[in-house]
Amino acid sequence: MTVEKLFDLLWKQYISIAPEAKEIHDLFRSKQNNEIINDHIALRTLNFERCNISVLAKNFLDLGYEMKENYDFKSKKLNAYHFTHKNHNYAKVFISELKVNEFDEKIQVFFKNLVKNIPDSILNSNSLVASGRHWEISYKKYNELYEVSEYAAWFYVYGFRANHFTVNINDLENFTDIEDVNTFIKSNSYELNTSGGEIKGNPKVCLEQSSTLAQETQIEFKEGKYNIPSCFYEFAKRYKDNTNKLYDGFVAASADKIFESTNKR
Ligand code: NI
Which of 35, 116, 121, 142 has its CA 20 to 30 A from that of 23? Predict the structure, then answer.
């Protein structure tokens, strides 16, 4: 496995349920000569020893990534780390995990049994992060989980895959401001996540982010086919920090709002 191959796998899996991301990618691509650079991708998991952040991280650490900062999202009951690579053209990786132990006993038991379905061969593979879901899904259960945690419901349906890719605005050839990116997205009839305002963060915190609202995708549940939110596309602009280096971390208050891009509309 190489970084390029792993990201290619994740991208193909992502646009298979979020074709809007590919459309937007192609719109940016048509405006410039070079490839679009990703700022980061994000992955979701559960905090069981079997499949927690450390387990998913292995796929990236083996390819030269390093673990960086830790983030805590108390109200959403999430913990996260970000990972970076020496090659700055390689996207940063943001992996979060649901603190299942903070939910009631019934949910804990449900997820504990669910993750037993992940074959050991997959858990130990170099493409676990793009392996999807390893269990049957019920629409009733999805809605029950959604009431308690959008994140729990999303993971239940989609499993291991990129939750979003993020365009690095700094590397776009014809856009400088995030405002212009947002205008471009909206003028092409895509909807932005307005939770916490269209732009999360500011130059003072060295990071500005915006994202589309996850598009609805038809998913086959045991009860039949239903449309539910899938994945979204994000845009990030970074500023130099007080050491005069481009900031490469994440702002928890902004990430907290970005998570809501997969909420039901
Ligand atoms: Ni993100």
Answer: 142
